[in-house]
Amino acid sequence: MALSKRMLFIFQAMVCLCFFSLSQGNQQFSLRNLPTLQKASSFLAMRHETYDYIVVGGGTAGCPLAATLSLKYKVLLLERGGSPYGNRNVSYLENFHIGLSNMAPDSASQAFISTDGVINARARVLGGGTCINAGFYSRASSNFIQEVGWDEDLVNESFPWVEDKIVQWPKIAPWQAALRDGLLQAGVSPFNGYTYDHVSGTKVGGTIFDETGYRHTAADLLAAGDPNNLRVLLHASVNRIVFNSQRGQLKPRATGVQFTDENGGLHQAFLNSNCDSEIIVSAGAIGSPQLLLLSGIGPKNDLKSHKIPVVLHNKYVGKGMADNPMNSIFIPTKSPPRQSLIETVGITEAGVFIEASSGFGQSPESIHCHHGIMSAEIGQLSTIPPKQRSLEKAQKYANTKLNLPKEIFHGGFILEKIDGPLSTGHLALIDTDVRNNPAVTFNYFSHPQDLTRCVYGIKTIERILKTNRFSELSANTDGHSMERVLNMSVQANVNLIPKHTNDTESLEQFCRDTVITIWHYHGGCHVGKVVDQQHRVLGVSGVRVVDGSTFSRSPGTNPQATVMMMGRYFGVMILRGRLGQAAGV
């Protein structure tokens, strides 16, 4: 049903009031205190130094964590990737897709394919996932904060600490405005305006892209630390945590880490002798359980099969992996929509989120005929692992691309994704090289409730397409035929899952066959099984895990806000625990 003129006036007024009354982030925050970013090989000059904290992983959680700890203590931050600064594929929205499709060994994104056949990516750059994601910023729900047992006052101090430095309000793109209107006309209400909060209905969230399309990342938060206390090494791949397991000790104690530099040189960095010093693993939901396994913490039989000395048997390491399954519907339009990533979201009561993306970048280095998140290029290129590429396979890719309907680059996508999937899987080592991806299984839609919610999401999109707002955008005078857009979407959603002839007749089959990811995987180091409530690794001392690997569900509609907050939260919590409610933190 179309909005009445009165309702439309109220709606437009509300948008204006929300937008102009909210700040655009703290423009006074400066990067001038950013610590020197050094190559890992430079460690030779500082090899005799010891640290209060060694943070493994300079990503979404690791950067705010290291910055906070450095205000009082000496911190070494080890990041396996390079710098985001000066990398146009990271820094600019228009090149979003290039960063994901870049298969070079030093690229900011490392592709992997789950055993389910879904193409995925993990970050390999200072700033982590905030450097390769769609930029959307939305907080976790209050229920999530209560479920994980965090102090709500400290949470409410930590979110603004991030937001004041790197978060903006978007100038909403036409495709995102169309989704906003379509959601409301389809009954996903109320309109909650511009807000970071997780509330049912339709809203516009924050973004880490500024008005010029420049990306601000978690790496920027390092400028809030003390550069005199913070050492940052790039291209430092941590191979294992070093433990001292002397007789008479109740628990093995971490003393340092072993890492490889960009030239293949091997180094060890050590904690000082203070009993409160720690290794803090913030390597992400893939990297953190992988590092624990490589360090001898995990299922003993699995460790022994790789000839890894067992430090601690824990059958839960790498278990309970989950990824929020996403399916997308391609919508052909009269004219190509302007490029946009996630800005608008519909939060339904059924536990399904509706978002959208559109267009492709037009910079000189951009890949053309490209539609961003759902790119056929990303999918087709990623299906060919580097060691298996050949002229024959390259030709097959080219032919597949040519056979795609021309309309596939003349429209946008509406995405539906499942909140808190009940389907879970596991992670296991393939080899002992930390640079290689482990085997990851997510078991998408193995739980029937996840499949039911996917069907609900597809039907919600169908309602959106029938609204007046989307009828106006249709490339056909008769509007959007659901059968037609489903058929186009089967070809546009690229994965390695075999397709079925009834994909568009059975929405359940469509969900199974076209499932893709939006990189919200989590788990592998769950609280109560691998770490305690303070995220200290059970059974050893001197090791903590602070990142999304500890989550049983992904927070909010998009996790980056909560994961950055989490880094700040645990940094403050650790400091207050050591200093007795430290002032000025």
UniProtKB/TrEMBL annotation:
<feature type="binding site">
    <location>
        <begin position="559"/>
        <end position="560"/>
    </location>
    <ligand>
        <name>FAD</name>
    </ligand>
</feature>
<feature type="binding site">
    <location>
        <position position="548"/>
    </location>
    <ligand>
        <name>FAD</name>
    </ligand>
</feature>
<dbReference type="InterPro" id="IPR036188">
    <property type="entry name" value="FAD/NAD-bd_sf"/>
</dbReference>
<keyword id="KW-1015">Disulfide bond</keyword>
<protein>
    <recommendedName>
        <fullName>Glucose-methanol-choline oxidoreductase N-terminal domain-containing protein</fullName>
    </recommendedName>
</protein>
<feature type="domain" description="Glucose-methanol-choline oxidoreductase N-terminal">
    <location>
        <begin position="123"/>
        <end position="146"/>
    </location>
</feature>
<dbReference type="InterPro" id="IPR007867">
    <property type="entry name" value="GMC_OxRtase_C"/>
</dbReference>
<dbReference type="GO" id="GO:0016614">
    <property type="term" value="F:oxidoreductase activity, acting on CH-OH group of donors"/>
</dbReference>
<dbReference type="Pfam" id="PF00732">
    <property type="entry name" value="GMC_oxred_N"/>
</dbReference>
<feature type="binding site">
    <location>
        <position position="238"/>
    </location>
    <ligand>
        <name>FAD</name>
    </ligand>
</feature>
<dbReference type="Pfam" id="PF05199">
    <property type="entry name" value="GMC_oxred_C"/>
</dbReference>
<feature type="binding site">
    <location>
        <begin position="519"/>
        <end position="520"/>
    </location>
    <ligand>
        <name>FAD</name>
    </ligand>
</feature>
<keyword id="KW-0274">FAD</keyword>
<feature type="signal peptide">
    <location>
        <begin position="1"/>
        <end position="25"/>
    </location>
</feature>
<keyword id="KW-0285">Flavoprotein</keyword>
<feature type="disulfide bond">
    <location>
        <begin position="454"/>
        <end position="511"/>
    </location>
</feature>
<feature type="binding site">
    <location>
        <position position="125"/>
    </location>
    <ligand>
        <name>FAD</name>
    </ligand>
</feature>
<dbReference type="GO" id="GO:0050660">
    <property type="term" value="F:flavin adenine dinucleotide binding"/>
</dbReference>
<keyword id="KW-0732">Signal</keyword>
<comment type="similarity">
    <text>Belongs to the GMC oxidoreductase family.</text>
</comment>
<dbReference type="InterPro" id="IPR000172">
    <property type="entry name" value="GMC_OxRdtase_N"/>
</dbReference>
<dbReference type="InterPro" id="IPR051871">
    <property type="entry name" value="GMC_Oxidoreductase-Related"/>
</dbReference>
<dbReference type="InterPro" id="IPR012132">
    <property type="entry name" value="GMC_OxRdtase"/>
</dbReference>
<feature type="binding site">
    <location>
        <begin position="79"/>
        <end position="80"/>
    </location>
    <ligand>
        <name>FAD</name>
    </ligand>
</feature>
<feature type="domain" description="Glucose-methanol-choline oxidoreductase N-terminal">
    <location>
        <begin position="284"/>
        <end position="298"/>
    </location>
</feature>
